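Handoff note, outgoing to incoming analyst
You'll be picking up this chain. Sequence as last confirmed:
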Amino acid sequence: MPIPEFVVELRKRIGHAQLWLSGVTAVITNEDDTRVLLVKRADNGEWTPVTGIIDPGEQPANAAAREALEEANVHVEPLRVISIDTVGPVVYDNGDVTRYLDISFHMRYLGGDPTPADGENSEVKWFDVNALPPMNERFTTTVARALAEPQPTIFEFDAAEVERTAELPGK
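Most recent structure output, in case you need it:
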C-alpha cells in the first residue's frame, strides 16, 4: 500500500504541510551475510533496502517484517537495530512534505519467493555484498552498517544542541 490510510486522513486535515512520521528500513541479508535483498522502486527506479511507515501502535521490528512481506514477499526476522536517524525533509511529487524518524534493522531472510508484491517496486533482487547497485548515500551507509563488525547501534548525539534547545523552567 503506497500511502497508509492514517496518513491520508492526516493529509485531509493538514494539506501538504510538513508531517513527522516514524519509518523503518529493513536491510535483509541471507544466512551468512554474503547477499543483500534490495527492491527497485517503481516511482524513481532506484535500488533501496525495504522501507516503510510504522502504523500507529505497531512495534518497529514488526513494521520492518511486515514491509518486507508486503513489498518483497519474503519472511524475515529482526537481528538488531542498526541505527536511529532523522530523514528529510522529503518533498513528494504532489507537494506533501514529510520528515521521518527512521529505525533501521538488520533482518535475516527466512523464506519466501522474492518478488514485487504490492506495486511499490518493479524488481526484487539479491546482490552480492561486494557488487551492490548504485544507491544514495543514506542507503549505502545503512547497508554498510548492517554488515559491519563489530555491530554497534549508530545514532547522533550533540550535548550542546540539547542544552541549546531544552525548555527548562526558569530559563
